[in-house]
Amino acid sequence: MALEPWFEALRWQNSPAAVQAERNAAAPQVVPVRATVTPVRATPIAERRLGITPATYVPAPTRAPNTASSTGPAPTPTPGEVDVAPTVAPPTPTLGPAELQLAETAFQFQDPPQPGANVQLSVTIHNPTDEPGGPVSLDLPLAWLNGYTISGVVPLPADGTLNGEHIGGNLRLTLDGPAPGDDLRIVVFLVTTDEVIDAPHVRVVDAQGRQVGQAQPPTEAPPGKPGPVYALDIPRLHLHTGVAQVDWEPPLFVVGQLRASAHVTEGNSVLVGHVRGAAGYNVFDHLDQLSVGDQIIASSRGKDYQFVVSQTEVLPEEDTSPTEPVASPRLTLMTCAGEWNPITRDYPERLWVIAEPV
Questions:
Q1: What gap in Å lies between CA 191 and CA 169, rounded to an integer?
Q2: pTM over 0.85
Q3: Which candidate, 136, 90, 110, 92, places its Cα nearest to that of 30?
């Protein structure tokens, strides 16, 4: 029995629910998209090589951005180009003697965040020398790609595919580098396959394997609809936790949201968690310390939703009436209460905490 919590912890850490809950807990707040991307056509050659149709793939061409350090008049965009002012994410200092420079990165949702949304990752590499830059490689974490699928890359990688190489936990895409004194703008077109909004840790290396730079840009997105709860913050309890989707039984180390319950602010969002036990089992151990008026913050799809506790009550274990759907928005938090019964290995009561929007 002494090893049971250890085995449970090991099993949890390797589960998809644990990975998603950790990702949800670290999900960033989104910022408004700074420019509207105008769809343009890919060249017919690119479309044929990618095996897609214009209806499903409308990438943007590569062009050198207008930077503050440019001299002379700004270049005039050619017809059909996308003139986007991406959010600049400060890259880390270049390591080693790489001559190329990571100039800008941006991560923009073209649709409101939700599964199936279109996203663009853009990376600009500057060549300050009078020599060709040679091949460059863009590394994207494979773990991050679990929530996204790549639908296109412009310019197309040197091997003519989107498959890349798997190197050190990353998907590596290799492309022809920037011309002397020029910029190379790489645009990766993505589609979300899960409830994710996080940008990748981007890394660029040159032909010699020297790091050009790395960065994680902020997530830009248009306003979205409420979704499932990603994470929960209860300031009074100093609690910040990711949220996993469950049928009923709470997950071991984080809070669970009942799949049958409503998206945040669209009805009754029911959140469940364990109260006592081995370390990590007790995410709601101090839920009974909450009082009417205490603040609870639920985050979803890059936005925070503010609630305050309006009611607390203890009910018999079999009474699940607080989980019933309601028309008004609320959070319903539940954990065990009463004295532990070693025979049934359960608690006889449940503590319910109801919170309503501020």
A1: 21
A2: no
A3: 110
Helix (H) or strand (E) holding 25: helix 16-25
Share of residues in the chain with pLDDT > 70 (%): 80
Task: Give the strand pairing for 330-337 and 255-258.
Answer: unpaired
Distances (CA, A) of 230 to 21, 279, 355: 7, 22, 17
Topology of domain 36-63+84-220 in CATH is Immunoglobulin-like (2.60.40)
Judge whether 17 and 194 are in contact, CB under 8 Å: no
* pLDDT score, position 69: 37
What does the domain layout of the chain look like in residue ranges? 36-63+84-220, 225-357
Domain 225-357 has CATH 1.20.1200.10: no
Instruction: Determine the average pLDDT of the residues in 78-95.
Output: 49
User: Is there a contact between 99 and 127 (Cβ–Cβ < 8 Å)?
Assistant: yes
Tokens of 257: 């949201």
